[in-house]
Amino acid sequence: MAKKKNEWLDWIKALLVALGLALIIRMFLFTPIIVDGPSMQPTLHDRDQMIVNKFTYRFWEPERFDIIVFHANTEKDFIKRIIGLPGEHVEMKDDVLYINGEEVAEPFLQDQKDEMESYEILTNDFTLENLPGEYEVIPEEHVLVLGDNRRNSTDSRVLGVIPMDQVVGKTELIYWPFDRLQIVGE
């Protein structure tokens, strides 16, 4: 009888340790997210399931074109692409991205642009000064984000620049649906 009792205690201990590890991993390292809506199409699709790396930005600085998850408000997290970094001036003119006055290619948009008529534009003109906050350059510890579906995205053009303390993490792995299993980036 004592042997059975010890066996049950061992199982309970193992289960508690496993639950504790799962909780630590989810809170501090990785967490799943489900893409909600079309704002990142065609890169990400509505209902794609992804893994968010929550520790990357504790050790490395964000990079242009990283896809991040951030707290848009108290109820909702958004997933967007970093376009502008701290200290930079961002402008979009005639569907061309300019960072500090230099043209920057956005290769992840090329297929969309190729499908458009010559008179159509994907991204309306804007400058950093026209966005909420009216900054001349992106402040330290902030990033400017845009959705890949520029015609249907609530991003920095509406929200302003995003404080890094609101960033949950970087995401690049689609794990479901299985036929879309891939690492996304540029």
UniProtKB/TrEMBL annotation:
Residues 8-176 form the Peptidase S26 domain. GO terms for cellular component: plasma membrane. One of its GO terms (biological process) is signal peptide processing. It comes from the Bacteria. Pfam families: Peptidase_S26. It is a single-pass type II membrane protein. Its EC number is 3.4.21.89. One of its GO terms (molecular function) is signal peptidase activity. Its main location: membrane. Keywords: Cell membrane, Hydrolase, Membrane, Protease, Transmembrane, Transmembrane helix. The chain crosses the membrane at residues 12-35. It is found in: Cell membrane; Membrane. It catalyses: Cleavage of hydrophobic, N-terminal signal or leader sequences from secreted and periplasmic proteins. The active site is at residues 39, 80. Belongs to the peptidase S26 family. This is Signal peptidase I. It comes from Oceanobacillus zhaokaii.
